[in-house]
């Protein structure tokens, strides 16, 4: 008996639930597009400070997930730069930074768990994603394309384009052709900033002679970076390629019109080895040549600063990108008359100004108005200036021409932005970022580790990388 | 609009709403609701099955077996058998999984010098880690057995078990840290070497010894596990056997060799094989400490690197299959051993 009773009760509850839900069913005759909320027209009046954001409309209740390789220190600035966007549009940005980004993103896409937006640190990765997962990367929205056309040079747009479809807008930019040095040491020793590659080698010899018999070496380097160990070494090779072989050959190298083991590439590797594999020139503060392979890149420049007040620095020169600025210990003054500053890694002659650059690209994986709006926002001058203001510690620039240089935090950033905007600079994108991921984020890294750790020869390294080219 | 049409419309609308709600869960509330719905569904289905099985007064054996084991078998098929078959199939295909290449991936895995190092390292790991962990655990368990400091001493060795592999790797990376020339050491091991008047060493770079220094980390973690299990079974040896042996004149090493070890043999086998299986899957330590560089890669790490960094799905699958084949004998042995123990009972 009791079973029958409960069956009746359950049926009754189910029926009443259905009825209750039925009351909520929209009238089938009504226009299906009304009442969805998303397409509400802008409401005439705009909150103070939101004038630049009105174009993105009302995105209340919408969420955009962002997955990036930008983690702590810079992550806080990134998140801060979206605050106004969130405030004005009502959208929520869910930021997730991961050091394993490059490896995890394809896994997430394959698992159907792709983020809405990802900041791809390499155009090569964009190419791989578009080829391997057709239809997953959403072509850039009209608003995004319009902003990129307005604020970026065509070459930057090309880097976000695969097979004539424009997918990803440039975000931040970085400039890798810098050598960090200790201004007071330079002053004491009377060293001058080198303006050509040969002058830099002469300076290297001079430093080596001046400090012979001590632990101080001319150069220090470190290429350990967890999952991505090896990338700082590829930057070295690229910078040298641009100088020894020139931008045209560099482009052929990137597009594989010349093989990776072309004599000109081997020559560039030899030129890198000339500095970094010479035990009398490296590895200041850390030990012998092999320590380059195990030293973490983000603290490899530390010996440029004296370990304690009054001590001689263990290292004089450290080639690293502009973003190394944020890796100096807290309290370090980055200025021409401060604790550290950087000079442009010189070209063959004083007139040659090749610049190795890089940057992140914003790719969308969900076709929705809020995702499109956020992608367009990131390509706008509004965001570039908001990010510049949020980055109080410095270490960030963009190739966005709408960026007001005065909003940048430090003199060094202003210098980087001015080189980036200089019409005489020949800017080339980071080659490893443009090559197929198997090479650019795989064998090139791995073989450069062997270059240092196992003293593998330039020719063998180039041959091994060439073998893995797909 | 007829009533029938309206009912049809109504149900398609209702289904659409429910589907959207369940599949596009964005807010925590929605996600928790989805979770609750799934739990209720699970309970309902299981309840229904159990109720159905219970219905006939004399249920047939096969019916009961199907209903109880069926869901588990289905899930195993879906979660283990299907991936195993698809991975095996993938190992005969090229990078993109499109063209059939036969045994090419396997040939490369066994002939390419880089992969040979990977296989060699895996063998070294599987042989050394279980042996060292078990020996250290066993000797330690015997030594501290029934002493005054037993609890404290055991806790000390067991503590590393509580640390994650990645955490342990980070700790040991600092221990092995190297500074050359006259620079101040910041790693413990090298500072000890310097104090002893020896040259500091680059523990993580110098192959093939660097693999041994990675193995030390795994042994450090697993010795505590071995010690705990073995200590418990030593305590379970009946006192009368020990006493009888003592009366027969056994002591010290003889007691260990002829009484302790044979008495705890089943536990020893379980510990050895369990650690061996854990070792075959070792990934975190290698990845955190060297990322597979300097000739320290093992199959589990290389499989990941090939699949997800080099985008070589075929090679990754082939390495996974090799790992799978390596682990089979261990499992067979383990199961046989367990059966034997049951027969004795």
TrEMBL record, chain A:
<keyword id="KW-0813">Transport</keyword>
<dbReference type="InterPro" id="IPR050490">
    <property type="entry name" value="Bact_solute-bd_prot1"/>
</dbReference>
<protein>
    <submittedName>
        <fullName>Carbohydrate ABC transporter substrate-binding protein</fullName>
    </submittedName>
</protein>
<feature type="signal peptide">
    <location>
        <begin position="1"/>
        <end position="25"/>
    </location>
</feature>
<comment type="similarity">
    <text>Belongs to the bacterial solute-binding protein 1 family.</text>
</comment>
<keyword id="KW-0732">Signal</keyword>
């Amino acid at each position: 008996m009791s079973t029958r009773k409960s069956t009746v009760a359950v049926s009754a509850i189910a029926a009443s639930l259905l009825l209750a839900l039925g009351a909520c069913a929209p009238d089938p005759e009504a226009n299906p597009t009304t009442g969805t909320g998303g397409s509400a027209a802008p409401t005439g009046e705009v909150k103070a400070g939101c004038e630049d954001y009105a174009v993105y409309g009302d995105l209340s209740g919408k969420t955009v997930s962002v997955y990036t390789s930008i983690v702590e220190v810079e992550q806080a600035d990134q998140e801060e730069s979206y605050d106004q966007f969130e405030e004005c549009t009502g959208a929520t940005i869910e930021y997730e930074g991961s050091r394993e980004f490059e490896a995890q993103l394809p896994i997430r896409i394959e698992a159907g768990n792709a983020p809405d937006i990802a900041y791809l640190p390499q155009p090569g990765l964009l190419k791989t994603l578009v080829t391997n997962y057709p239809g997953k990367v959403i072509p850039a929205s009209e608003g995004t394309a319009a902003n990129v056309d307005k604020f970026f040079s065509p070459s930057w747009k090309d880097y976000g384009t695969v097979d004539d479809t424009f997918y990803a807008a440039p975000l931040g930019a970085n400039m890798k052709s810098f050598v960090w040095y200790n201004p007071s040491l330079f002053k004491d020793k009377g060293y001058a900033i080198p303006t050509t590659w040969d002058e830099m080698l002469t300076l290297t010899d001079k430093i080596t002679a001046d400090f012979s018999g001590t632990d101080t070496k001319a150069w220090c380097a470190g290429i350990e970076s967890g999952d991505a160990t090896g990338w700082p070494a590829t930057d070295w090779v690229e910078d040298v390629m641009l100088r020894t072989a020139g931008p045209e050959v560099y482009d052929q190298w990137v597009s594989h019109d010349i093989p990776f083991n072309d004599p000109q590439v081997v020559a560039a590797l030899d030129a890198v080895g000339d500095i970094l594999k010479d035990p009398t020139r490296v590895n200041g503060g850390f030990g012998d040549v092999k320590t380059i392979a195990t030293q973490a890149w983000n603290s490899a420049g530390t010996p440029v600063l004296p370990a304690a007040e009054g001590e001689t620095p263990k290292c004089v020169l450290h080639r690293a990108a502009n973003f190394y600025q944020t890796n100096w210990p807290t309290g370090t003054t980055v200025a021409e008359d401060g604790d550290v500053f950087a000079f442009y890694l010189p070209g063959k002659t004083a007139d040659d100004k090749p610049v190795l650059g890089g940057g992140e690209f914003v790719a969308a994986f969900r076709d929705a108005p809020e995702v499109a709006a956020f992608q367009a926002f990131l390509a706008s001058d509004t965001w570039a200036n908001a990010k510049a203001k949020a980055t109080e510690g410095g270490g960030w620039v963009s190739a966005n021409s709408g960026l007001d240089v005065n909003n940048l935090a430090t003199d060094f950033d202003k210098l980087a932005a001015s080189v980036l905007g200089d019409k005489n600079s020949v800017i080339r994108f980071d080659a490893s970022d443009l090559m197929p991921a198997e090479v650019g984020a795989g064998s090139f890294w791995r073989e450069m580790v062997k270059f240092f750790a196992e003293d593998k020869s330039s020719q063998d390294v180039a041959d091994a990388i060439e073998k893995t080219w797909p | 609009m007829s009533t029938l049409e309206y009912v049809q419309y109504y149900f398609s609308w209702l289904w659409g709403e429910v589907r959207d709600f369940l599949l596009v869960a964005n807010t925590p509330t929605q996600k928790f609701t989805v979770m609750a719905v799934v739990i209720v569904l699970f309970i309902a289905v299981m309840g229904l099955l159990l109720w159905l099985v219970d219905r006939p007064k004399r249920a047939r054996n096969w019916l009961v077996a199907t209903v109880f084991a069926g869901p588990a078998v289905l899930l195993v098929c879906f979660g283990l058998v299907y991936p195993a078959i698809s991975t095996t199939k993938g190992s005969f295909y090229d990078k993109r999984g499109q063209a059939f290449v036969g045994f090419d991936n396997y040939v490369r895995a066994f002939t390419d010098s880089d992969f040979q190092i990977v296989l060699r390292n895996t063998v070294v790991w599987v042989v050394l880690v279980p042996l060292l962990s078990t020996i250290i655990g066993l000797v330690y368990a015997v030594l501290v057995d029934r002493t005054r400091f037993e609890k404290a001493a055991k806790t000390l060795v067991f503590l590393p078990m509580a640390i994650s592999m990645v955490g342990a790797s980070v700790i040991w990376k600092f221990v092995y840290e190297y500074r050359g020339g006259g620079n101040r050491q910041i790693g413990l091991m090298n500072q000890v070497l310097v104090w002893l008047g020896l040259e500091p060493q680059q523990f993580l770079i110098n192959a093939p010894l660097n693999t041994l220094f990675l193995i030390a980390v795994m042994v450090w973690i697993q010795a505590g596990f071995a010690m705990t299990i073995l200590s418990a079974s030593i305590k379970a040896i009946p006192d009368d056997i020990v006493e009888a042996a003592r009366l027969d004149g056994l002591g010290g090493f003889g007691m260990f060799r002829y009484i302790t070890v044979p008495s705890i043999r089943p536990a020893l086998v379980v510990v050895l094989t369990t650690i061996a299986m854990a070792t075959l899957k070792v990934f975190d330590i290698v990845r955190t400490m060297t990322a597979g560089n300097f000739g320290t890669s093992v199959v589990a790490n290389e499989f990941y690197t090939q699949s997800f960094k080099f985008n070589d799905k075929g090679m990754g699958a082939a390495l996974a299959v090799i790992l799978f084949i390596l682990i089979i004998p261990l499992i067979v042995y383990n199961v046989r051993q367990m059966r034997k123990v049951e027969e004795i009972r």
